[in-house]
Design goal:
This protein folds into 2 domains: 201 residues, FAD/NAD(P)-binding domain (3-Layer(bba) Sandwich), CATH 3.50.50.60; 115 residues, Polyamine Oxidase, Chain A, domain 2. With 345 residues, the protein is of the alpha/beta class. Helix content is 24%, strand content 22%. The protein binds flavin-adenine dinucleotide.
């Protein structure tokens, strides 16, 4: 039996924010992460294949970046936008697609790397899918069982319910809500096209487009600070059974941004719908949530710790505000840390 005051399941931004805060307060913490890497939906390789932006008003993200010495820069939005219609591509003067937003100079995953860097060696264990949480809060992976005072499920609820045998004594109402709570962006493909230079900017374009034709339905500039490295990214919905056709993507980029856009130096396709630790849905149909299900974000049942105030839910989907965003993941972490601190030893 392994000991730790707190076991956090999931080394995404929410889990690592909890772990770093409870470590600072002097408690011992172990983070168990299923993937061979940390970060969850923050993945920068080198550009962001998961989250990339935060917005004005998201004070927790801003404060964390400041505290950890992470440089940020403004999203490039200057220039005209493009509208990709069935009959033609139209140039739209100005850019109604992008609003002001901020990016992380070395990618969003610099947040999770910096948080993990504050923890003691061996506090974060990767390649450790949690298989079971027992009624007495034993946490089991293939390598052993931990018996902590608090357990934090920093995993999207729908993924937790499908990948972890949860305590039998949890209320059935909670299990029903968790099963139906969508995973934010869990059905999305993000495509990153990298170039030698941001040539669209010289053409007076913002690198932003919306398309009614596809396969990408929305595109934005993803270049680094000062346009280097140069890149455009797009979102596609993960509905095609055979995945995204690279040739279709290149053709679309060329149609919208000109021939140079059709021959990127590198084309990365990150299909989050096929990532079992982000989207645990059993089928493609199941992975498309209904609009009503998004109302379950931040559900009241997630706000109350269970099992003698020792079991906590902490992923962006459990946040009453900013759910889906990095800011929501940090809000959930803050609530969890408060609940742990309020619990007598
Ligand atoms: C393509 C894309 C674009 C996005 N763009 C933005 C954006 O621009 N701005 C923004 O604010 N947000 C954006 N988001 C959302 C943002 O990424 C998330 O809100 C945030 O990263 C969620 O963090 P989290 O810690 O709650 O969950 P996650 O990052 O999902 O972390 C959960 C962790 O739990 C692990 N795990 C799962 N099951 C188990 C198990 N059984 N045992 C152990 N570990 C397990 C997972 O591997 C993962 O590391 C985007 C997301 C995607 C996918």
């Amino acid at each position: 039996m392994r000991q730790s005051d707190i076991v956090v399941i999931g080394a995404g931004i929410s889990g690592l924010a909890v772990a770093e805060a409870v470590h600072r307060s002097g408690r011992t913490v172990t983070v168990l992460e299923a993937r061979p890497r940390i970060g969850g939906r923050l993945l920068s390789d080198p550009l962001d294949l998961g989250a990339s932006w935060f917005w004005d008003g998201e004070q927790r993200v801003r404060a964390m970046a400041d505290r950890l010495g992470i440089a940020v820069f403004p999203q490039h939005i200057a220039g005209d936008a493009m509208i990709d219609e069935r009959d033609a591509v139209h140039r739209y003067p100005g850019n109604p697609i992008d609003g002001p937003a901020h990016r992380f100079a070395r990618g969003a995953a610099s947040l999770t790397h910096a948080l993990a860097g504050q923890l003691p060696e061996r506090a974060v264990l990767v390649g450790q899918p949690v298989l079971e949480i027992s009624d007495d809060l034993g946490v089991t992976t293939a390598d052993g069982t931990w018996q902590p005072r608090h357990v934090v499920i920093a995993v999207p609820p729908a993924v937790a319910i499908r990948t972890i045998r949860l305590p039998q004594s949890l209320p059935t109402s909670l299990m029903a809500v968790a099963l139906r709570t969508p995973v934010w962006m869990g059905d999305t493909i993000k495509v990153v096209a990298m170039y030698d230079e941001p040539f669209w900017r010289t053409d007076g374009l913002a690198g932003a487009a919306i398309s009614r034709v596809g396969p990408l339905h929305e595109m934005h500039d993803l270049s680094g600070p000062d346009g280097s490295p140069a890149a455009i990214f797009g979102f596609a919905r993960a509905s095609q059974p055979d995945g995204l056709d690279q040739a279709d993507v290149r053709a679309q980029l060329a149609r919208i941004f000109g021939p140079r856009a059709g021959v990127p130096r590198e084309l990365q396709i990150q299909d989050w719908s096929r990532e079992q630790w982000t989207n645990a849905a059993a089928s493609a149909e199941e992975s498309v949530p209904g609009a009503a299900d998004y109302a379950l974000f931040g559900h009241a049942l997630y706000q109350q710790p269970q099992l003698g105030s020792r079991l906590h839910w902490s992923s962006t989907e459990t946040a009453p505000h900013y759910a889906g965003h990095i800011e929501g993941a940090l809000e959930a972490a803050e609530r969890t840390v408060r609940a742990i601190s309020a619990c007598p030893e």
